[in-house]
Amino acid sequence: MTAIVGIWCRDGIVLGTDSRATFTSGLVRTIEQPTDHKMRIISGKLMLAGTGQVGLGQRFARIVEKAYEEEKIFKGAPVSVATALCQQAVRDFASTDTPKGQYGALLAFPVEDRLQLCEFAASDFQPELKDAHLWYCSMGSSQPITDPFLGFFRGIFWRDGPPSVSEGVFVTLWTLRLAIELNPGGVGGEPVIGVLEKAHDGKLTARQLSKDELGEHFDAVEAVAEHLRAFRDTHRATTGKGFPDIPGQNKGAD
Fold first, then answer.
1. Which pLDDT does position 201 carry in this prediction?
2. Would you say 12 and 198 are in contact if contact means Cβ atoms under 8 Å apart?
């Protein structure tokens, strides 16, 4: 079970996951264990996170790594890159009679210094590139929680377009924390977040954020939450009354 969030930002890509792995025996879940391998940094330039069978994720990671090392696929148009990776992965999965719907992934990668975020759908592994028109997505068992929360943030903060990387990290962290706290089965641990952006030397770099870096965003999340908690008292002090009652509301009902 997994929580994955990806955000295409004005100045980079943000990718985050939870850090809990679920063991299974057939269709029966057995135990959960901590893991920091749900997100992979490949060749210092790509970020990959997947949901579904771990073994298929290992195979897709190798496909991506090999393709990047050979410097062929990643020289084409972004949609051609995504299509080629999809073709290779589908062939590889089919070679062991893997049915559809066993694995999905988010991949952040550069093409000629342009940053791309691609969703490989868990249902059929078909690729979809994110851009300035549709710049965020989530995957995994927590998607019924994470999608609405991301949509809420778009309506509040991102009406004019994609966020910055800093804003994307803040929202990704809060979204993952919410999914972990509500825990729809197998989602847990601490959020793991990576960014793909230009470093100070101008080179594109993919890296995982440190605990100290995430700590600053945790503090920001708490500050916003405290502000929301104080809104009720501020509203009462300003208007002289609380929130209006709902007509016909059955107070005290379960």
1. 82
2. yes
